Amino acid sequence: RWASPPFEPAGIPGGVRARGIADGKANVMAHIGALRAYGGRPPVGIRIIFEGQAEHGSAFDAYPPTDPGMFACDAMLIADTGNIRPGTPTLTTALRGAADLLVEVRTLDAPVHSGAYGGAAPDALLALVTALATLHDAHGDVAVAGLRREPWDGTTFTDDEFRELAGITDGTPLMGSGGLGERLWSGPAITVVGLDAPPVTSAAPAVVPRARAALNLRVHTRQDPREALTALVRHLERLRPFGIPLTVTPGGVRPGYEAATGGPAYRAARTALRRAWGTDPVHTAAGGSFPLVNGLAAAVPDAEILLFGPADQLCQRHGPDERVLLSELRGALLAEAAFFAE
């Protein structure tokens, strides 16, 4: 629930609260502000792309490789990320890949009475949850062979920051073992994002004949998501919970991205961020795949792609009480303007 009407900007200590204020509006204004700092005439050539369909899927994601000349440049700055915490200048250098699939169990022609048939009639829902339980071990780590996992060498959240960010209830432990960055970015995650089964509100004393789950897989930035999806499909297809086969249907894949950070644009960006914030920048990753980033990288493979912006990771993007801090917007704007000069 919003603390104020979402489409009416509301002042808060140090910032502004409104729907889309952080993810969308502040990103655009950081670019515009950096250009205004030079009176619209920055010391380098600039091409600007405003793309507003990312959350819905956009045909533009695949367009850049079809017209690479339009996107020719030495460096690209994408403002769809921000500092890992307010006041810590941050470059996002890696994006997880992703894949989707459906897994289904059918056992009966129709529901049958659990008193008369339960105990012998094969329960599709029980078979499905038994299969899903094999995807993680007792610690909550992904237990599917062939999915890449490595230690994370960048900056990450503290456990307390992550608990607050995710809204984890008191007393509930985090899943998995190892470093938090490893669990979030340089290792796999499998999430059950949907389940077709009788709802509790209309449940009847009957053996369930059919159940289906939608899974979302997130993978290491350098792992081919098709390879990872094949490993997950193989794991599920080998299962026979109570002797019952599963029907596994692979879905779409979205590759991750890992930036090459040793070039002149990254050196300039580090200097610019240091000037804007007065402290050394850190690097981190993001759990979402940005399809446009891969489209731009394919169009101009020699260009350096940098991700930094005004929406810090605690900004509640896409959620109630989304906000932007003016200090973050100012820092991102100054860093971008300084980057032009570098």
TrEMBL record:
| InterPro entries associated with the record | Cyt/Met_Dipeptidase, Peptidase_M20, Peptidase_M20_dimer
Hydrolase as a keyword?
Answer: yes
Q: Which NCBIfam families match?
A: PRK07907.1
What is the organism lineage in this UniProt record?
A: Bacteria, Bacillati, Actinomycetota, Actinomycetes, Kitasatosporales
Q: Which GO terms describe its biological process?
A: proteolysis
Q: GO molecular function, one example? A: metal ion binding
Q: Which residues form the Peptidase M20 dimerisation domain?
A: 94-239
Keywords from the named record: Hydrolase, Metal-binding, Protease
Q: Does the keyword Membrane apply?
A: no
Q: What is this protein called?
A: M20/M25/M40 family metallo-hydrolase
Name any one Pfam family assigned in the record: Peptidase_M20
